[in-house]
Amino acid sequence: MKEKLILVTGGSRGIGAACVKLLCAQGYAVALNYARNLEAAQAVQRECEAAGGIVHLMQADVSEEPQVMAMFAALDAIGLPLAGLVNNAGVVDVAARVDQMSVARLERMWRSNVLSSFICAREAVKRMSSRHGGQGGAIVNLSSAAARLGSPGQYVDYAASKAAIDTFTLGLAREVAAEGIRVNAIRPGIIATDIHASGGQPDRAQQLAPQVPMQRAGSAEEVAQAIAWLLSDAASYTTGAILDVSGGR
Hints:
Elements: E1 5-8, H1 14-25, E2 29-34, H2 38-50, E3 54-59, H3 65-78, E4 82-87, H4 103-128, E5 137-142, H5 146-149, H6 156-176, E6 181-188, H7 195-198, H8 204-208, H9 220-231, E7 242-245
Parallel strand pairs: 1-2, 1-4, 2-3, 4-5, 5-6, 6-7
Helix pairs in contact: 1-2, 1-9, 3-4, 4-6
């Protein structure tokens, strides 16, 4: 398995970090992409390598095409075929109504949550597709339960960006299905990670837990398990699927 390389964007914290750790434990070589927090990325790398894993650090802001191109060039230099991509990097913003949202906020949301997934997937397809001489592979996009809930009064822009990821997943899955690439998405619900703090609501997961049928927030590790399954050969006939990991919400 260590001859299979998986790229995880936004892999230094939260769901991304949980994915890196689990995939390493399952025997994959992992490329951990991070934008700025080298210390956090190195901490994940040390933990994985202490357990015998292989983690390559890849610094890039994946909303910027030149940085994505440089990252994929560095991936090529590793010498292992790319077998999978987890499009996890993304942002949220402070709670606001649509009539309070600036164009700068909206542009940041689209670039970080939608454009980044498109350009990373584009480069992954160029390396994995049989049409381009590749050996096949799998892409897992990170959507959100917000895509079907709308997040009124909080994050309609975030919800809309994740709805775009749902449509992107379905279209790309059908586009490359005959080329050895499976494309699926995960829609996490209320997950206890520090992304809520970046949106100014560090206790949001705990506050919303009573709204979840299972009466609790989920963990990053639970989401990572679903992602790892979609990447694996156990999901060999699964493509174009959008899997809710939301405790029934």
